[in-house]
Amino acid sequence: MVGSIWDDWVDTPSKVKDGATTEPGPDSYHRVPEDVSLAADLGLDRYRHRRSARRWLQ
């Protein structure tokens, strides 16, 4: 998978204090029902699901 500029920067040693990387990334694509439920539990009345176009094309 080709990463974004952010993915490349985060994966560069010493850029992130605890050495975390972008893997595994957020999985909101497969967890929409859970995310909507969490938003409702927080009292939010809106939920925006956004997917990077770069990831759609892979």
Can you describe what's shown?
The chain contains 3 helices and no strands. It is mainly alpha-helical. The chain has one domain. Helix content is 34%, strand content 0%. The N and C termini lie close together (7 Å). The mean pLDDT is 76.
Our count of helices gives: 3
- Average pLDDT works out at 76
What does the main sheet amount to?
A: none
CA-CA gap between termini: 7 Å
Helical/strand content category: mainly alpha
Q: Please tally the β strands and state the result.
A: 0
What is the helical fraction, as a range of percent?
Answer: 25-40%
User: Topology as H/E string?
Assistant: HHH
What coarse outline follows from CA principal-axis ratios?
elongated
Strand fraction equals under 5%
Domain module tally: 1
Sequence stretches where pLDDT stays below 50 over 5 or more residues: none
Cα gyration radius (Å): 15 Å
How would you briefly describe this protein structure?
34% of the residues lie in helices and 0% in strands. It contains three helices and no strands.
Secondary structure blueprint with pairings:
Layout: H1 5-10, H2 32-41, H3 53-56
Observed structural traits:
58 residues; mainly alpha; 0% strand; elongated
